[in-house]
Write a structure and sequence with these properties.
globular, 8 helices, binds 2-phosphoglycolic acid, seven-stranded parallel beta sheet, about 30% helix, Rossmann fold
């Protein structure tokens, strides 16, 4: 794992955008995995700005999103379809026929999930998956106790996650209980995992995922087994890392050819 601690979320988001944009420049037909939530919003703002000012071209990019709520119309303001359109897809030149988000209104969830896996495979796999982390350590919507080998499927949200996401729905009682999410096995197949975590609410989950034991009780700890997982943190979310000094030294002394 590469643990990068930046002074704040703004610096971290800027660096995340540089990493994603670097891939798109190098591989115009890259397959990008997107996440939702508060954390990646500034990263998406940077990508939009790079598209506008530097002509960063998304015309050949294929996108796959991590998850979606079951039972929400794609046009519902709190759906992840709406989120992605608002924060990114409507603001860059990505082709809508190359955008993939699980369809939460399907009446055949198992078939929908299998077809999502098939589409990822047919696209050649995901080059870089952007990830957040839940306050309960979830990855995508893989809640504690998720199988570490799971594929895209239906999951039931914990009360903690429904509480964390209540603002978008105007109350916890309105947050759906069920979601479709890429599994931990699906995420592990991505070539690079780029996890962003900011703020004091994430401190504990980050410490457990990075330095705790690998366990289904902290689903993000599966990234300890990933060949290329990058944790991009701010000072607050990194506050409980015992080896922060080492991670900083490693990052500050990377050989020139390894720098972003
Ligand atoms: P957040 O969500 O970015 O809104 O904190 C992260 C997550 O639940 O994975």
């Amino acid at each position: 794992m590469e643990i990068i601690i930046q002074p704040d979320s703004h610096e971290a988001s800027r660096l995340a955008a540089k990493i994603v944009a670097g891939l798109v420049k190098e591989k115009p037909h890259a397959v990008l995995g997107f996440a939702t939530g508060q954390t990646p919003i500034e990263l998406y703002r940077h990508l939009v700005e790079m598209h506008r000012k530097e002509r960063l071209d998304f015309s050949e990019v294929t996108a796959f999103n991590l998850d979606e709520y079951v039972g929400l119309e794609p046009g519902h303001p709190a759906s992840y379809h709406s989120y992605m359109n608002e924060h990114l897809f409507n603001l860059i030149n990505i082709r809508k026929d190359r955008v993939n988000i699980p369809f939460g209104l399907t009446d055949d969830i198992p078939t929908c999930c299998r077809s999502y896996e098939d589409r990822i495979h047919a696209a050649g796999g995901i080059d870089i998956q952007i990830l957040g982390i839940g306050t309960d350590g979830h990855l995508g919507f893989n809640e504690p106790s998720s199988s570490l080998a799971s594929r895209t499927r239906i999951k039931t949200l914990t009360a903690q996650t429904r509480k964390d996401n209540a603002a978008a729905f105007g109350g916890m009682d309105k947050v759906p209980h069920h979601v479709i999410t890429m599994g931990l096995g699906t995420i592990m197949d991505c070539r690079t995992c780029l996890l962003l975590a900011f703020g004091p609410k994430k401190t504990r989950a980050v410490a457990q995922a990075v330095e705790g034991p690998l366990t289904a009780m902290v689903p993000a700890s599966i990234l300890q087994m990933h060949p290329r997982a990058i944790f991009l943190l701010d000072e607050e979310s990194a506050a409980e890392l015992q080896r922060a000094y080492y991670y900083r030294w490693v990052y500050d002394n990377k050989p020139a050819w390894q720098k972003y």
